[in-house]
Amino acid sequence: MKFRFRRFSLVLLVLAFLVACGPRDETAPESGIGLDDSDGPAAMELPGEAKPLAEIVGMIERQGYGPVAEIELEDAGWEISAYKSGQRVELLVDGVSGEVIRDMPPETGAALSEILGSLEAKGYGPFLEVELTEDGWEIETHQGAMAVVLLVDVDSGEIIEEE
Fold first, then answer.
1. Statement to judge: residues 44 and 83 lie in one domain
2. What is the C-alpha to C-alpha distance for residues 68 and 88, in angstroms, rounded to an integer?
3. Which domain does 67 fall in, by range?
4. Is the domain of 13 the same as that of 91?
5. Taking the model in full, what pTM does it have?
6. How many domains is the chain partitioned into structurally?
7. Quick one: which of 91, 87, 66 has its CA closest to 78?
């Protein structure tokens, strides 16, 4: 998991550099994020007065969010997954002002207690680590004497992958 975090940190650093140093579109709207979707995702551009991503991330970190898990440019601003008080939240941040527009925990379908109970009934346990990832619940556990890592769907509670 440390490797994923380091790899992700490097991706964020490169993304921040590209956003901060990339060309600006002088014809972009006065506020908010300007998108020209006629050319697909590569045509996304920030308005000239947009704050650099590094500044946006610094602003949310000073508000108590962190670590940041994911950043994505959307129509309405930066969609940022981060942690606050030990809980992962999904933020929508205005690219010009840096204001947090929305702060919500990620949506999950099945209750974690139900998922863990179902896995215990199937012979898994004890549970060593449980983490909500972009792909689902990543659960380190045992089945009998064998250590396994499960990827479990957040909505159905079904095992997607077992390593």
1. yes
2. 9
3. 2-104
4. yes
5. 0.43
6. 2
7. 91
Same domain, 90 and 157: no
45 and 61 both lie in a single domain: yes
Buried b (16+ CB within 10 A) or exposed e, 52-77: ebeebbebbeeeebeebbebebeeeb
Are both 21 and 62 inside the same structural domain? Answer: yes
> Which helix or strand (DSSP H or E) is residue 36 part of?
none
Say how far apart CA 50 and CA 60 lie, in whole Å. 15
Residues 20 and 99 in one domain: yes
Q: What is the DSSP-derived secondary structure letter of residue 154?
A: T
Q: Which residues contact 47 (CB under 8 A, 6 or more apart)?
A: 24, 25, 28, 29, 30, 31, 32, 33, 34, 95, 96
Q: How many Å apart are CA 15 and CA 24, to the nearest integer?
A: 15
Q: Clarify whether residues 35 and 83 are in a common domain.
A: yes
Q: For residue range 132-156, what is the model confidence (pLDDT) as tens digits?
A: 887 888 999 999 999 999 999 988 8
pLDDT digits (tens, 9 = 90+) for 3-21: 454 555 545 554 555 555 5
N-terminal to C-terminal alpha carbon distance within the chain: 14
Structure token digits, residue 115: 């998922």
Place of tokens 């942690």: 83
